[in-house]
Amino acid sequence: MFKLERRYERSRYAGLLVTTGSLLAALLFCAVILALAGANPWQTYVAMVKGAFGGKYEFSETIVKAIPLMLCGLGVSVAFRMLFWNIGAEGQLAMGGFAASGVALFVPQAFPNLPSWLLLPLMVVAGFVAGALWGMIPALLKAYLKVNEIIVTLMMNYIAVLWVEYLFYGPWKDPKGYGFPGSALFTQAAWLPRWEGTRVHGGLIFAIVAAIAIWLILARTKWGYEIRVIGENPTAARYAGISLARNILLVMLISGGLAGLAGMAEVAGISHRLQKGLTVGYGFTAIIVAWLGKLNPGGVLVVAVLMAGLLVGGDQIQITMGLPASVASILQGSILFFMLGGAFLTDFRVRWVSRARLPAAPSLAKATPEE
């Protein structure tokens, strides 16, 4: 019979081999699906790569898509490090976009000549705080009432998304917008600067700085050590005097805040208004990004670019080859599935144990006492 055994020593080369094999298996699996759909898998993959990385414009659009994935992925990875399953990055992003839009729309009305170097930091703070406070609700319920955070964070996504939709369809709808849903255009002082000739904006700086800060916290501080200990063994952490409740709250402040910052970057860097298209699944894709990045800040940045390339490439094959853009989503799911399977094989090994070598079951019959 087969038996699972945990690996106590992991080879770096074996891990690299398993990761490469998992990626190839995902590509092969998706190739079979494409072939069954009547498409040429090789041509499809080439078109996706060219559409995402084939030139300056294509690569810049990939980075634009990667920015919210980076910020949300970093936030989610911090929470996952401590075994807090934050599935609510989508809602936290929406609340960050809502708060930053509120500042951009109403603060200039009170202070018409407010310069960009004051208005943009206010929007950053508003977006971060709104996302953090939205993340604090499930954190408080988990820390003090032991409420399952997966259910709470998931349900709160719908509340946040529908709240934002209510605003740009209702009270914040631009009366000069010819009936289209969306707020009025922000003043230019509320626009994040862009790299010349592209749509790549200052949110990329936010993501890089956040990744460096998280790495320093996890690798060089006492708080980072506590997070790692809780993630590896919560019971041992509790016996060591580490406060689980305090760390849950602090981690969710960072996790929700980074997702909220992603929302701020989207409205200030791309749309320049609150409108439909803010919540398109970045918070959910960030979960895949965090896992594939091994919850490592640098890995999250790299995987976010690759995942964004899948999204942009999926749009391109829809235009050039007539295939549905959902091909990219199928490939995302396939990669996650095979990568998780590969991660399981790096942690465990399967051994064949002969039944003859299994220990005999103890007898249930009671021994007769000696007289």
Quick summary of this structure?
By secondary structure, the chain is mostly helical.
Q: Which consecutive residue ranges, at least 5 long each, have pLDDT under 50?
A: 367-371
Mean pLDDT across all amino acids: 89
Give the spatial strand order of the biggest sheet. Answer: 1-2
Distance between the termini: 43 Å
Structural class: mainly alpha
| Count, helices | 13
Proportion of residues in β-strands:
under 5%
Number of strands: 2
Shape: globular
What string, H for helix and E for strand, traces the elements in order?
EHHHHHHHHHHHHHE
Helix content: 55-70%
What composes the largest sheet? 2 strands, antiparallel
Rg calculated over all Cα atoms: 24 Å
What does this structure look like?
This protein has 371 residues and is an all-alpha fold. It has a domain at 74-292. It is built from 13 helices and 2 strands. Helix 1 (12-36) runs antiparallel to helix 13 (326-347), helix 2 (41-53) crosses helix 12 (297-320) and helix 3 runs antiparallel to helix 10 (244-271). The longest helix is centred in the middle third of the chain and has 30 residues, at 116-145. The relative contact order is 0.20.
